[in-house]
Amino acid sequence: MTWLILVGLPLLSALAVTTSRGGNRASTVLVVTSALTSIAATVHAALPSEAPFLDGYLHGDETVQLFAPVINFIFMGIAVYVRARVATEPASRRFVFLALAFLAASNFALLCNHLLLMWIGLESTTLAAALMILRADAPASRLASWRYLLFSSVGLGLVLLGFVCLTRSMELAGQEPTLFLDAMPAAVAGPTNAWRELGVGLVILGIGTKLGLAPMYSWLPEAYDEAPAPVSAMLGAVQFNIALVLLFRIVHIYRPGSGPLITGELLTIGLASVAVSTVSIVATQNFKRLLAYASINHAGVIAIGLGLGNAASYGVLLYVLSNAFIKAILFLTAGKIEAHYGTKDTKTIAGLIKDLPYSGLFLMVGTFALLGFPPFGSFLGELLILSALVTSGQMFVFAAFCMLITVSFVATGRTIFPMIWGEPKQVRTWPQQRVSGALHKLIFLGMLLVLGIYIPPQINALMIHVAHSLEGP
Amino acid sequence: MNPLLIAFVGILLVPLFVASWRLSLFGLAAQGLIMAWISYQLDPAVDSVSAWVGLFDLIVVRGIGAPLALYAVLRSQRATARHDVIPPNLMSWTMAIALVFVAFRFADMLVPLEGSEHSFVAGATAGLLLGLLVLATQTGPFSQMVGALRIENAIALFELGGGHHDIGMRIAQTVILILTVLLFRWYLKTLPRASTVKVSVVEGMSS
């Protein structure tokens, strides 16, 4: 029941921001609230998991224990970034209100023990995020925001339609229809039918749209590019993981009965996403877009791993958690670079490591992690997924995956490395960067290293538990 | 097949062939009201709060609110009467009709026995496919909104055929739909200005 702090506190803070007193300290309210929810999530993760509460509608199970601290912690880093930017740009009360509503809806969706309720939470995060993408100084952001809302509405519409089909399939099988997560495994234990296959297919396609997977991915580069840096980080590292948890739930419940469908669909859309993002990474000259395409690429890798199940499941989790920190580091760094240079053109930015040492360092380390270099968790995660492809006999997918990843690896390096180490095009003088301003990203970096080098036993136990639920028969 | 569902399929098709934004909005309104009528036929007693919320969703939000909200904006912008929901050519029209046949064929496969469930599936699938056709062929915000709302209506028709959730969730779904429609209205008001922004050689960078 105390899990409700994660929802209630941001909601109360959002209300407080609407008052004149709270509004004057909006960015401070944002930081304090996210710090408190991070602490609460971490404390809950350390305690044994609770039974479902509020008539069984909410449940802080192992998946929640694993993801809630990550999501809230990343949100806190984003809040610190927003607060640091207040020194130069006043934080809008409206932005902070929406960000807090987004946090409350994200935590609510994560805690849900009911698929429809989780859908409602995810829709709420979408409505808040659509308004946060808007930037007064960038009219193109309005179009990006509209496309984000449109694709999300259609994607989540397909998910809802999938749920209707799933309940119909239970009725046909003579079971009491339910969307409660803890009751569903028993309700779907019987043989599969056409309604169930249709429902699972639609739900995966719909969630794939929220994750930026092919075929409905075109909103993502535009939204991530046009949105303010903190919002890109929220979409990529917070909302992405909420949608992924919904997909985890579906895979957990339906893999035993609809394994081939899940594997086939996830492998297909995963590989297609890696292919389209690789082509775009090669072509782009905009570093924020490059990060967005890399996000599609990563979503594709996750879909492939999730489709395989079994030994790849642990690798998927490692990759997902690392990916969240990588995206947070890179998008926040991209915001800093864009603010300083006033451009996103990779050809005009060079010598970052001299110009903006901390941003250069974070871009460098973040790119290494993005490309799956050791000792980061993404390296081990990708390795486990690749090994599972071989052991499961998916040699065509393995070969195509290796080729595409190599191309995107070279293309990303060719674009990003001159930005870091190249000769500066013109002499500029920036105010000196302070360590305190980069502390949140340093902590994210520490987390990334922890995931790659030494995972504390308690976190590892949670990961093993969640991975086991994704493995399938 | 239920005459109301025949009317529903008819109202899905007509605005695709008559190029008028007023007719598109009338089509959306008619879809909402027909679904409300179907819902009333299925549960004439209307003896639960959930049923009343369902009727409110169909009549007030889908049947009146959403079309009226978009109508007011287009009227204030003095939009020209002509508006093609899908490209006005033989190819698009053939595809639209073919999709309706596909929807019925799909319903035959999913529900082999003729009956109300078969009709629901056929009507809702036709709505969904035609909504996707509109989205796939149009880039303008208004057409995309019409496409998205057509898909929302198709899902609502699917839900009428089964799946009853408790009152809290029903209300939450309706609130989300209202917020979505309000956002649609806001985008329709403001997007024409944004869509004039040119995109430079480096994609995504406004000039």
Task: Please provide a brief summary of the model.
Chain A has 473 residues and is mainly alpha-helical. Chain A contains 19 helices and no strands.
Counted beta strands of chain B = 0
Shape designation of chain B: globular
The percentage helix of chain B is: over 70%
Average pLDDT of chain B, to the nearest integer?
87
CA distance, first residue to last residue of chain B: 55 Å
Question: What structural category arises from helix and sheet content of chain B?
Answer: mainly alpha
The secondary-structure element order of chain A is: HHHHHHHHHHHHHHHHHHH
Cα separation of the termini of chain A: 33 Å
- Which chains share the greatest interface? A-B, 46 and 37 residues
Kindly provide the radius of gyration of chain B, computed on alpha-carbon positions and rounded to a whole number of angstroms: 18 Å
Average pLDDT of chain A:
91
H/E element sequence of chain B:
HHHHHHH
